[in-house]
Amino acid sequence: MAVNIESCESLPPDEEPKLKYDRMENDLLNILLKDAVSCICVHTKFICIGTRWGVIHLLDHEGNIVAISQDGKPEFQAHTIAVNQISVDQNGDYIASCSDDGKVVVYGLYSNDNTHNLNLGRAVKSVALDPCYFKSGSGRRFLTGDHRLTLYEKSFLNRIRTTVLHECKGNVQAMSWQDRFVAWASEVGVRVYDLVAKCSLGLIQWEKNPNRSIEDYRCNLLWSAPKTLMIGWVDTIRICVIRKRSQIELQTRDVTEYLVDPIYTYQIDYFIGGLGPLDDLLVLLAVPKECDPKTGKSQMPVLIVANYKGCEFCEISWETLDIRGYQEYNCNDYHLDMLIEENRFFIVSPKDIIIASPYDIDDRVTWLTQHRRFEKAIAVLEEVGGKTSKHSVMTVGVQYLDHLLSEHLYQEAAILCARIFKNDKVLLENQILKFAGVKQLRTISPYVPKTPEQALSPYIYELILFEYLEVDSRGFLKIIKEWNPTLYKTSVVINKVIEHLLNTEVDTNVYLETLALLYCHQKQYDKALTTFLTLQHKDVFKLITDHEIYNIIQDKILDLMTLDCDQAISILLNNTKIPVEVVEQQLANHEEYLYKYLDAYSKMEPNGRYHGKLVRLYAKYNKEKLLPFLRCSDNYPIQEALDVCQANNFFPEMVFLLARIGNTKEALQIIIEQLNDINQAITFCQEQNDMELWIDLIQQTVDKPEYVTLLLKRIGNYVDPRMLIQNIKPGCEIKDLKECLAKMMCDYHLQLSVQEACKVITLRNYFDLHEKQVMAQQRGISVTDDFLCCVCHGRIIIRDMSNASDLLVYNCRHSFHAGCLPEGDQCAVCNAVRM
């Protein structure tokens, strides 16, 4: 089985890892007890490892042995010493290996055809099978590398034809074959050979360091794409692209069709043990250059994930690997192979194989939850539909909620609870109970479902209400107002409130208001009304109007008026179920309330039923309204009203009432003697238009010079000024007499002029209309054949003169035969209509 491992030094706590690691065990452990791995080749079907004793083993990806031959042998002794390199064709049918013992072996897993066992008599450092070796028409080619690069291919009569492609300086220590291109490395550098064009595409020289020789380090070659070559050697990385030249280049120069273009080159602080692609990133198996300062031995290798496509080599993540026996190894002892399609990496050391693979969704969620990055974990799950084989948004949400509660982040926990568990009532209720355990139900209360369709069990809402009841009375009242009463059992809450009031010394007003609302929810409106009135709370009026409980307020009218007179009157007047007699009886001993009620009632019902009583109430509570009321109403006893006004010395009202009953002289006397208002007296006389009243006014004021002045200025428009002048006593000193006389005479003459002008205009209009009438009557009337006698209905105009008779045609255009017309000189038709 594969065992999960943890690196000795992990990423920073906030950095999400790219890869997870599993140590390969199973049958591999038995192999490594006796031997050590010298090379590896990974195929999608299996893993092929070569050991230092020259044995080749075939394993599945979990480390279990797979039979390597048709007779079921678990291993193949291909060489006598360590295997240098293994190559597998694309289909996984053939394996090629080489060693320093001089042997090159091509072994068929399913057939003995096209297999080879060559002894070249010299150390062979590298080998590569044609990826299409399994195909019958491929030529069955393979390459070997020693001090030359040699191509072997099948020729006529199944003979092997060898072709030396290149003579190398030093050994060909590594090679990799992809389609028509082969890349190999020697101590000079890396070359790429085009097998179709049979030419080298160029040399990629490697920088030499005087302190180290590149021959001492294995070159790592990998085709990450059909025309992309990755090279890692010593401490330098190069990413090369095989580019096809343009037609212009091919025509103007004698060059190869393709060329190798190094597009990225980076030098790092590690020795490179292997490299490969991870999507758009680069994975490096790196070995620290320096030894451990404490032990003097090698340090742990590092697996680096980096972005190489920018201007700089940027490490995204790195993890040290706890390889068995790493202290004794150098970078040449490590190998990195991979399955590009699956992004799986096999990290190989002589005594260990570790598989690195990308985190799947479950792995990511597990890591994120372990590092308390719950929001990110939930987001990852939501991207894949909210659920995987091991995790779901709900399970992670529960963990997250527990974490927030443990950190006392109650508000965040409440928001999370509503967001994650809103579609699972049972789970939501269980999580809400956790808030009850820490006495934070008030925090979750804004987020619980409040519609009847989504409602939880009543017990949950009752728990929340009880916590508010004990801790936050205002909040308790607010929730009772906002929540639908169907969410909880109101009787249970009412009992709890009453119990709380009896057993606890608290501000009762808030709880009584809440109790009134609960009674409303139970439709116990009489109890709610009583409670509101006890509190003197104005919501009682809303209660009455909303639920139309007019039948139970008739004995509480005085209480309602005391609480808010205006609102009470509005309710009493807008409802016919409460008779006026009942209201009057209830308010009989509270005349101010009765006045306000009858005042409003008289505006709605002007039948005058209570106008007599209103006169007395106006006189007592609002004198300003009395006179306008007396003017607009005819439904009060005038004598009683006059008695009230006389008793209270309401002189303007007395003047109006006296004038109304015809006692204008007494009214005028009150104006002069009590009100001392000559202007009002003059206006009063103008309104009454009574000559005797003018005489009384003159006689009563002629001995007062200041009044005479005003009379002289204003009387000329209404009476003959001589009446005033003749009554002025000789020797009376009148202020501004000259101006007053001049104005009086001017006003008098103006009045005469106006009268004369009106007379002239009237006469002129009369004669003009008379002339028009005479002309209209003298105008002739056209008589046609269409005219008929209005009596016999015969034609007026008769052609036969022997039957003709006299005709009569009126201005109203009615026509008659003289013999048909009844007696009289008027039109019979119009006269009948008038009759």
UniProtKB/TrEMBL annotation:
Top-level taxon in the UniProt lineage: Eukaryota
This protein's UniProt keywords: Lysosome, Metal-binding, Protein transport, Transport, WD repeat, Zinc, Zinc-finger
SUPFAM superfamilies (UniProt xref): ARM repeat, WD40 repeat-like
Example GO BP: cellular response to starvation
Record-linked PROSITE patterns: CHCR, WD_REPEATS_2, ZF_RING_2
Annotated CHCR repeat ranges: 567-710
Gene Ontology cellular component list: HOPS complex; late endosome; lysosome
Gene3D superfamilies hit by this protein: Tetratricopeptide repeat domain (1.25.40.10), YVTN repeat-like/Quinoprotein amine dehydrogenase (2.130.10.10)
Renumbered ranges of WD repeats: 76-117
SMART domains with a match to the protein in the record: CLH, RING, WD40
Recorded GO MF terms: zinc ion binding
Localisation per UniProt entry: Lysosome
Domain named RING-type: residues: 789-831
Protein name: Vacuolar protein sorting-associated protein 41 homolog
